[in-house]
Amino acid sequence: MRLTFDKSDERFREEVASWLNEKLSGEFSKIKYRGGPGDENAFIDERKSWEATLADGGWIGIGWPIEFGGRGASIERQVIFHEEYARAGGPGRIGHIGETLLGPTLYEFGTRSQCERFLPGILEGREFWCQGYSEPNAGSDLANIKTKAVFDQSTNRWLLTGQKVWTSLAQESDYSFVVARTNPESSLHKGLGFFLVKLQQPGIEIRPIRQMTGTAEFNEIFFNEAVCNAENVVGPPEEGWKVAMGLLGFERGISTLGQQMLFQNEFDAVVSLAKENGSAKIPELRTRIAEAHIGLKIMRYNIMRVLSGFSDAGELQPAALISKLYWAKWHRNLGKLAMDVMGPEGEFLIDTPYELGRLQSLFLFTRADTIYGGTNQIQRNIIAERALKMPREPRG
Amino acid sequence: MQFRLTDDQIMIGDTASAFLSEVSSIQAVRNIMTTERGYDEAVWNRIVGEMGWTGTHIPELFGGLSLGYIELIIILEQMGKHLLCSPFFSSVCLAQNTVLIAGTESQKSKYLGRLAKGETGTLAYSSGGNRWDSTAVNAIFEKKQDDFILNGEYSLVADGHTADLLVVAAREYQGSRLGLFMINSNQDGVIKKWQPSLDQTRRQASVELKAVRTPLNSILGEAESSAERLNAILNLATIGIAADQVGGAQKALDLAVAFSLDRIQFGRKIGSFQAIKHKAAEMMLRVESARSALYYAACIADQVLKGEADYEQLKEAASIAKAYCSDAYFFVTGSAIQIHGGVGFTEEYDIQLYFKRAKSTETFLGSAIWHRDQLAKLLLDV
Ligand SMILES: Cc1cc2nc3c(=O)[nH]c(=O)nc-3n(C[C@H](O)[C@H](O)[C@H](O)COP(=O)(O)OP(=O)(O)OC[C@H]3O[C@@H](n4cnc5c(N)ncnc54)[C@H](O)[C@@H]3O)c2cc1C
Fold first, then answer.
1. Given A83, A217, A239, A251, which residue is catalytic?
2. How far is the CA of B290 from the centre of ligand 1 (A)?
3. Any chain B CB within 8 A of the CB of A207?
């Protein structure tokens, strides 16, 4: 067991840092530290062109295998990249879902031609993806999906009808991966397909949903015989659940690494505010700040453990199963701590109608962290059942 | 970076677990924990002779195995899991670390071999109160001709009533320097007394020094840098305690889950109730996170001993580990009692032993509260 990075990795760190330092200037300086959770629809156009800039530098998909256009970067280098990205104030990644969820799913479960069609758009920062899983009656109970897909023999296409909801950044995306029922007789996780669907088409309507933050990062998507060509179904049309779950496996692995690295910046902002406004002298706040610091460090150690064990662990290890629950709770607490450090100032809007400051957004948005990507309750079920082998929940 | 145990390290843990299952069964623990000595000498001799654990992180040059601090932590984790009653922690994490960090080369060769071969030892520094660094030192040393004269009282000295070698910390009379002295625990003026404690699996003692005379060469290293070194020694030991906590917390979780899959109420295993499952999941979250904090701190300790990390890093890593592991151990054992129901409150069931060890290890070398305060100072006051 060792923590230190070797010399060539440290050189890689310098390379990343100086590249970011050079590029995050001029037109991009205004998007530094922007576009994170709670701020996801800030500077959309600039952040899309930032994606293209990242792509030019070869920084998208560095962990992907070389044969699929990645750099095959080691876990160490991926950690280094994300650390430096956070340190440099790199903006929230619009291409995140494509890069960390869909890409790996395609090279794991997709066909050669699906990879050839879709991976370059992700790697070049041109095509953006969103995740069409949740429905009004399929939230935690994801297998209860009702959106249906009917195969039209004559055109060799699938026609999708139904509704998705809470789809983050759908309004800014080009494609969605959609889980839909291919076999109307089936129930639960049988008879589902995994579809790659173009969003700009007549059969699709996207309606933003306003959140408690005043912004609208997530959406409803209505499908009315929306078209998906047969070649754009990943895996057998009745076995999309396996693909959908494979994708969630990536979500538990490395995909949230970048996001968690950004937490350091938020924590630092809370600490400097506390020093500035005198909160740092209040015993209870001192304790909570120290606790947050401990929690953040351990989050990083947990990640390092997960990543170091990843290559040879068939089954997800314990540290991987706890990761979502851990960071969601930590982050939600940080949001409250930020407000408590702000004190009465925390009540004042930056502007009307409802413009929030960074820490206010953090406070409100972190209420979602314990809901999306599997609620805390679902995470606890997963931990108890998979890691501790306790009995499964009965179905009604 | 490879933040996971190597195959060799996993093997060390497995071997330790197998050996401890044999010599530190719960019955053995219950037998020995009510004695004043507090440990079984035959088991100690096997730990020293057969397992060689007392030489784990001592350099070969001084009669040890030259393994690292990580290996030591792995062994201590298993000891916590098996509630081992032993002067291992005090001899290795306190006495040996003191010699390693503060001693001159000739002192290392004089004492480390003896400690590796099974003489026991400990470190006395605090006169009581809730302070766990060099500021807790109140005893006094004074140079008189060719000797030092030591006076003072210490409390909560781990295994202080049985240790063969005693390192004591003292401040210079009318001066600012701090000294660490290796004295013979049986010499005149050393008064040792067992302090019976809530947790019966670990021994604490008071030590009083009444005009104890010790030769000039008994001071470890130079007096100049001793405060900083003492803090480093305490931080290394703190990580050792955290290892005990992680091992114990894991075992308490295992006991609770096993019980929940056995006990039937309302015609179901209680482990099928979501309230119990979710409690268990929270317990596991804490155990795994505690383990991450521990292994990280172990790596830093290992680097410090190899001259690759500094004392500041050690202090931060030790405080993070001790704060988190203390809270985790307490939370997990408390929850485990709840999952057991009425039997969890009995003397007969073992979970109470872990609960008490959680509390004693939390207090010893600084509670979570104390360590968070240390971290708050690092973060907010500079
Ligand atoms: C900001 C945000 C972004 C999102 N982005 C996306 C996205 O891009 N794509 C997408 O597909 N989805 C997205 N979601 C949806 C998200 O995944 C769901 O909200 C989540 O899975 C919970 O489903 P639900 O909202 O239907 O709540 P429900 O499932 O109805 O849950 C309501 C409550 O019941 C509890 N509960 C449910 N089942 C159990 C159980 N078995 N045991 C104990 N408690 C239970 C839950 O924990 C929760 O507290 C997003 C959500 C949010 C808030």
1. A251
2. 28
3. no
Q: How far is the CA of A376 from the centre of ligand 1 (A)?
A: 9
Based on the fold, state whether residues B247 and B217 are members of the same structural domain.
Answer: no
Q: Tell me how crowded residue B42 is: count the other CB atoms within 10 A of its CB.
A: 9
Ligand 1 atom nearest the C-alpha of A368 is: 53
Contact A305 B379 (CB under 8 A): no
Number of domains in chain A: 3
Could you tell me which chain A residue has the CA closest to the CA of B369? A287
**Ligand 1 mean position, distance from CA A146 (Å):** 16
Domain count, chain B: 3
A251 is catalytic: yes
B256/B343 same-domain check: yes
- As for the ipTM of the complex, it is 0.95
pLDDT tens digit string along B323-376?
999 999 999 999 999 999 999 999 999 999 999 999 999 999 999 999 999 999
* Beta bridge pairs of residue B172: B141
Residues 186-225 of B with CB under 8 A from A: none
Instruction: Looking at the structure, tell me whether residues A348 and A269 fall in a common domain.
Output: yes
Rounded Cα distance between A318 and B286, Å, is 11
Distance CA A206, CA A42 (A): 19
Residues facing B264 on adjacent strands: B269
Confidence band, pLDDT 50/70/90 cuts, at residue A23: very high
**CATH (domain of A147):** 2.40.110.10
Contact: A390, B380; criterion CB under 8 Å: no
Question: Exposed, middle or buried by CB within 10 Å (0-12, 13-18, 19+), for A250?
Answer: middle
Q: Which residues line ligand 1 (CB under 6 A)?
A: A 130-134, 139-140, 166-168, 218, 368, 371-372, 375, 377-378, 381, 393
Which of these three, B119, B138, B167, is where a domain ends?
Answer: B119
Q: Do A305 and B295 touch (CB under 8 A)?
A: yes
| Whether B231 and B327 share a structural domain | yes
Q: Do B1 and A5 touch (CB under 8 A)?
A: yes
What is the extent of the structural domain holding A206? 129-239
Q: What is the pLDDT of residues A152-179, one digit of tens each?
A: 999 999 999 999 999 999 999 999 999 9
Read off the pTM. 0.95
Cβ–Cβ contact B3 with A under 8 A: yes
A139 and A232: one domain? Answer: yes
Q: Chain A within 8 Å of B157 (Cβ-Cβ)?
A: no
Q: Measure B258 CA to ligand 1 centroid, in angstroms.
A: 31
Q: Is A308 in Cβ contact with B3 (below 8 Å)? A: yes
Q: Is residue A394 situated within a structural domain?
A: no
Contacts of residue B207, Cβ cutoff 8 Å, sequence gap at least 6: B124, B153, B154, B157, B160, B166, B168, B190, B191, B192, B193
Q: Which structural domain range is residue B157 located in? A: 122-223
Residue B120 has, within 13 A of its CA and on its CB side, a CA count of 22
Which residue is closest to A377 within chain B, CA to CA?
B278
- pLDDT tens for chain B, 382 residues: list them: 788 899 999 999 999 999 999 999 999 999 999 999 999 999 999 999 999 999 999 999 999 999 999 999 999 999 999 999 999 999 999 999 999 999 999 999 999 999 999 999 999 999 988 999 999 999 999 999 999 999 999 999 999 999 999 999 999 999 889 999 999 999 999 999 999 999 999 999 999 999 999 999 999 997 777 899 999 999 999 999 999 999 999 999 999 999 999 999 999 999 999 999 999 999 999 999 999 999 999 999 999 999 999 999 999 999 999 999 999 999 999 999 999 999 999 999 999 999 999 999 999 999 999 999 999 999 999 7
**Boundary (domain end) residue, out of B193, B223, B253:** B223
- Give the mean pLDDT of A216-236: 97
Contact present, A277 and A51 (Cβ < 8 Å): no
